[in-house]
Specification:
alpha/beta; 2 domains; PRTase-like; Ybab, Chain: A; 5-stranded parallel β-sheet; 8 strands; PRTase_dom; single chain; 7 helices
Length: 211
């Protein structure tokens, strides 16, 4: 299967069609996972007529296999650990990775939330949007963080994902919406004609537009 979407915005338009049940609801907030999920989320929120924000999550990766998460960090000091993996690591290894990712989390939070109120998910339906699901590790981390922040319902939405990631996420969220999930997944980038790295400036522009 070749490219399905022209860019993240067109992917967001397609994803919004799958999320029409959430249109116009005041309890819904669409959260773009920083950074690649933000342009997708912006299109989704605009088409559904619901609130838009961003969620900064940092995956805590195993030192010798960073794609494997032993936990995650989120806003307000939220830390979630996958005990079955974390217990195999030395405390010093956990501390080193956590310290590094905390610094990056603070940097991004300071940049993206400057002059804006803190994110409040208490009692809300959080629609977490990313540009694709390869392993699903970051999305899983984001879902756990959203729940810890008080979200009443968590929906994970992505334009494309691997079958394994989509199926695996059903155990941690209330709903997974992923219109394209081919058996021969490969990488997220192959499903986009334009899959440039989203910059801090692009995320900032989306947030500026929110007012």
């Amino acid at each position: 299967m070749g490219a399905v979407y022209r860019d993240r915005r067109t992917a967001g338009a397609a994803l919004a069609d799958q999320l029409r049940a959430y249109a116009g609801r005041p309890d819904v907030v669409v959260l773009g996972l920083v950074r690649g999920g933000v342009p997708v989320a912006a299109e989704v929120a605009e088409r559904l007529g619901v609130a838009l924000d961003v969620l900064v999550v940092r995956k805590l990766g195993v030192p010798w296999a960073p794609e494997v998460a032993f936990g995650a960090l989120g806003p307000h000091g939220v830390r979630v650990l996958n005990d079955s993996i974390a217990e195999k690591l030395e405390p010093e290894e956990i501390a080193e990775v956590t310290q590094r990712e905390e610094a990056e989390l603070r940097r991004r939070e300071d940049r993206y939330r400057a002059g804006r109120p803190s994110l409040n998910l208490t009692g809300r339906t959080a629609v977490l949007v990313d540009d694709g699901l390869a392993t699903g590790a970051t999305a899983r981390a984001a879902a756990l963080v959203a729940k810890r922040m008080g979200a009443a319902r968590v929906v994970l939405a992505a334009p494309v994902g691997s079958v394994e990631a989509c199926e695996g996420l059903t155990t941690v969220v209330d709903e997974v919406v992923c219109p394209v999930h081919p058996a021969d997944f490969g990488a997220v980038s192959r499903f986009y004609r334009d899959f440039h790295q989203v910059t801090d400036a692009e995320v900032g522009a989306v947030l500026t537009a929110l007012g």
